[in-house]
């Protein structure tokens, strides 16, 4: 089975900061990688799919890159609404393993 | 508007069974793969099971293989998860999620609000 890791597990940042989260797969997943944002008490929200494609309605300050086994999520200028937990996910047609998550909190 | 509404959660004793349901609306249900994802209290997301549009392809996490069964009824726009031999570690909020494709690799573009399953004596 493919295992996903994320770093860091927690990130403290200020409004306006550029933030980068890294996700690694235990074997190549091509570009089948998604990023989700989850706020307390809410369902996850899809941000990025196919490693770098922005989901409709998601602000352009979010971007994704990478392929194979290493991927990044970047928030170009952190906004108050962005303090949340972020998960990467490798997916195929009927499965999808998540990373352990990265909590972005206020510095 | 896409809506996914889970039901069937509750308190159940270890070793017993529970059946979750997910009622879908706002999209052509039989055009898309569907999934169950769970989240234990204070923990991360865990993919549980997925099913293709026509039930031809099904997958399970190792942690539930042999105990849980996913199914769907396209005529009723509904997704199900039969959970047998429940354990304390199955305690979680269970989300229903929609894939954004019928069979190609697809992320989960819509999620329900979840139904809570608590396994305890």
**Helical amount of chain A:** under 10%
Oligomer: heterodimer
Spans of chain B with pLDDT under 50 lasting ≥5 residues?
Answer: none
Task: Determine the structural class of chain B based on helices, strands and strand pairing.
Answer: mainly beta
Largest beta-sheet characterization of chain B: 7 strands, mixed
State the helicity of chain B in percent bands. Answer: under 10%
**SSE sequence of chain B, one letter per element:** EEEEEEEEEEE
Number of E strands of chain B: 11
Number of helices of chain B: 0
Q: Summarize model confidence as the mean pLDDT of chain A.
A: 96
Number of E-type strands of chain A:
11
Radius of gyration of chain A (Å)? 13 Å
Q: Count the helices of chain A. How many?
A: 0
**What is the strand content of chain A?**
over 45%
Dominant shape of chain A: globular
Feature tags:
heterodimer; A: 107 residues; mainly beta; seven-stranded mixed sheet; four-stranded antiparallel sheet; 51% strand; B: 121 residues; 11 strands; globular
């Amino acid at each position: 089975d493919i295992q996903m890791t994320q770093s860091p597990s927690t990130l403290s940042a200020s409004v306006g900061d550029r933030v980068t989260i890294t996700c690694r797969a235990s074997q190549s997943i091509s570009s089948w990688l998604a990023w989700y944002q989850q706020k307390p008490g809410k369902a996850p929200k899809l941000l990025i799919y196919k490693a770098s494609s922005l989901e409709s309605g998601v602000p352009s300050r979010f971007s994704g890159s990478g392929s194979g086994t290493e991927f990044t999520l970047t928030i170009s200028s952190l906004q108050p609404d962005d303090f949340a937990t972020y998960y990467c996910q490798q997916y195929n047609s009927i499965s999808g393993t998540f990373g352990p998550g990265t909590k972005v909190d206020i510095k | 508007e896409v809506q996914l509404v889970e039901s069937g959660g509750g308190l159940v004793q270890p070793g017993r069974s529970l059946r979750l349901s997910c009622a879908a609306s706002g999209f052509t249900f039989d055009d898309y793969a569907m999934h169950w994802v769970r989240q234990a209290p204070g923990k991360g997301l865990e993919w549980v099971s997925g099913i293709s549009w026509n039930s031809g392809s099904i997958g399970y996490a190792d942690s539930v293989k042999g105990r849980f069964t996913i199914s769907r009824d396209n005529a009723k726009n509904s997704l199900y998860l039969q959970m047998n031999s429940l354990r304390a570690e199955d305690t979680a909020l269970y989300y229903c999620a929609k894939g954004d494709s019928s069979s190609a690799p697809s992320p989960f573009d819509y999620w329900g609000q979840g139904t809570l399953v608590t396994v305890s004596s």
